[in-house]
Amino acid sequence: MLALQEPVRNRFARVMQVYRRTAFFYYILHLYLIHFIAAVVFFAKGKHTLQQAVDNMQQLPFLFLIPGEGFRLPGVYFIWILVVLILYPLCKKYDRYKAAHKEKWWLRYL
After folding, report:
1. Using one digit for the tens of pLDDT, what is the confidence trace for 84-109?
2. How far is Cα 48 from Cα 100, in angstroms, rounded to an integer?
3. pLDDT exceeds cutoff 70 at 37
4. Which CB contacts under 8 angstroms, 24+ apart, belong to 36-45?
5. What is the pLDDT, as a whole number, of residue 88?
6. Mean of the pLDDT values across residues 57-68?
7. What's the CA gap between 16 and 44, in Å, rounded?
8. How far, in Å, CA of 45 to CA of 108, rounded?
9. Shortest CA distance to 42 belongs to which of 18, 28, 22, 62?
10. Model pTM?
């Protein structure tokens, strides 16, 4: 979808262009942000860290995610949109940084 947006010139295309140029950066950040949101929801439900450690001993990389608990589809869509909106300013700043520092070859990969 992002590749098809390239010749289009409007506001939506400019927003998508930021995500296109910072795709891996966005990918890395969204993983941390989603896990942070999961931890906040976990503690907001009144759970405790000891319970989290006991309940999830078998699922160590997925801490704060208890099987059988979660959100319905509208809630998942809300969180997805929230993550995309929260990360846009960070991706935009990083895109500007990449454009200003073209001498740093390794930025092309992040």
Report:
1. 999 999 999 999 998 888 788 777 77
2. 45
3. yes
4. 37/79, 37/82, 37/83, 38/64, 38/65, 39/63, 39/64, 42/66, 45/69
5. 96
6. 63
7. 33
8. 41
9. 62
10. 0.75
pLDDT band of residue 27 (cuts 50, 70, 90) is: very high
Helices (H), ranges, the chain: 2-5, 11-21, 23-44, 49-55, 73-100
Contact call for residues 21 and 88 (beta carbons, < 8 A): no
Please state the domain extents for the chain: 23-109
Residue 79: which of 48, 34, 44 has the closest Cα? 34
Which amino acid type is present at position 65?
A: L
d(CA 15, CA 45): 35
Distances from the Cα of 102 to the Cα of 29, 91, 97, angstroms: 22, 16, 9
**CA–CA gap between residue 80 and residue 62 (Å, rounded):** 18
